[in-house]
Amino acid sequence: MTVINRFFALSLLLVLCACADQSEPDRAGAGDESAQATAGQGTSDSSEPAAAETDVAAFDAFADQLIDEMLQRSPEWAIYQGRYENAGEVSIPDAAHRRDELAFVADALERLGEFDREALPVDQRTDYDLLENRLESARFYTRTLRSWEWQPSNYNVAGPLNILLNTEFAPLPERLALIRDRLEHVPAYYEAARESLGTPTLEHTELAISQNRGSLSVLDDIREKADEAQLDADLSDSLSDALAGAEAAIEDWVGWLEQRLAKLEESGNARPFRLGEALYEEKFAYDIQADFTAAELYRRAQAEKERLLDEMDGYTKELWPKYFTGEPMPEDRLARIGQMIDRLSQEHVAVEDFVDEIRQQIPELAEFVRENDLLDQDPDKPLIVRETPEYMRGSGAIASVSAPGPFNPDADTYYNVTPLETFGEEQAASYLREYNDWMLQILNIHEGIPGHYTQLLHANKSPSLVKSLFGNGAMVEGWAVYAERMMLEQGWGDQAPELWLMHGKWLLRVTHNAILDYAVHVRGMERDEAVRMMREEAFQEKSEATQKWRRLTLTQVQLTSYYAGYSAIYDLRERLKAEQGEDFDLKAFHNEFLSYGSAPVNTIAELMSESE
Ligand code: ZN
What we know:
Blueprint: E1 15-16, H1 33-37, H2 49-73, H3 75-81, H4 95-113, H5 122-145, H6 147-150, H7 158-166, H8 172-196, H9 202-229, H10 233-267, H11 277-288, H12 294-323, H13 333-345, H14 354-371, E2 383-387, E3 399-402, E4 413-417, H15 425-434, H16 437-447, H17 452-459, H18 465-469, H19 473-489, H20 497-521, H21 527-537, H22 542-554, H23 561-580, H24 586-594, H25 601-610
Parallel strand pairs: 2-4
Antiparallel strand pairs: 1-3, 3-4
Helix pairs in contact: 2-3, 2-5, 4-5, 5-11, 7-9, 8-10, 9-10, 12-13, 12-20, 14-16, 16-19, 19-20, 19-23, 20-23, 21-22
């Protein structure tokens, strides 16, 4: 999940990942007993049935009530989740709003604390933990991290407008009326943004400028659809007034940011983008929700890097005679792996075929998953490949998935691909080497099948609304990375050493995401060293390395989520395999793992062990 326009931490996002960067079970558990045991509600423990059931019912009612309140309080979050009751209202990100949110969080935590966590069955206990984490992290974001003060890119009105425009939950004129209502708030919204902003970072200011400029194109899209819709005169007039007002407000905001930027560049007084150790560890704890610290993950990632380089060296030696007949192999390990990767990177599609090639591969991946019985799929909900909408570009990602929320599971899921033509010739060529014939397959597994798209389909059928709404980013990204390796293990690509070597490169990037995020934000690593490491030790293309640096400056912790989740999922699978021996069933493992919504991996591990 990449850049998230949230001014309040409760606004969990649905746009996933910039995995470019690196990059359901339907009926939980496919009908085995474990599914019933975890289907929520009816887990009756015969030893003390009456009390337990009352507690469970009361807790579930409380959770539903709390979610309702949150949806009411944040129309934007509700829109992302597929609920449109208050879609015409806009949260104005001012000081009063923040105070009000903090009071709500304090009250909600108090009400949550009235339940005896230990007395709840495991399903409700994990919902308890997720709600508590969500509330506490909202408080942390508002009160301690205070990104509303220094990340101007938090302020952007385009996301919800685009959803209202393009999601067909109601006839177009009704949606355009909601859009008009939102647009009328846009001037007040940016006025509050200006007042909230303290000293921003240069990086987030530049991002805010480019993304808000992109937002203007959403207004053009609205105009275009309104012209086609033959609206009645009232709506037509009020909409065009609202559009004009919003456009002026966005242009003012962009102009104001450009002036700020120029002054900050001149004075050198911008806020540094690095988070520092204390804030970083705290954010890591809330965002990743693992049972290890950021420092521990950093050390593990460094060890994994060494293991990977060894493995990749083996494939390089195996492939050398095939691609470099008679040429001597370099003595240096990094040099020979790099040379082999360079050679393989020459095999790629033409720039104009990039999106079409992705479109063609998706059904092939679905077929492989079906033939090999790897997990449940839902042919009624296809993944639609589209060009990334304008307003979502500019964050450095060339691919991402936008999925419907649990309230709207029938809406379409999009695979957003940014056409490489938009990057200019040199950078497009670099992306093509990066997403060569082998890497492109891994990208499609990660974003599509059985990665993000498949996981989200399953998550939307989770019996727990809490778990599907308060999704854990490390689980989501970890699953997509796990899916890559699992597909190769199961024979996608016929065990070609080329594909395994490229997968090694991909995983090396995931590992470096974790290493660099910590090294840059906590240990103060500078740009040159980070780019050198990515180029020389992780074999990244120049475009990839420079975009990654940009992302390192714009996000904190998020880049560790891939490796944090992947390593935890892989460990869990290997542990269950060892415990269950011949009884271990990969499809059942996948279906059950995915049946709990996007809960943190250690929570899922707990649920799976209780359902055995
Ligand atoms: Zn991803």
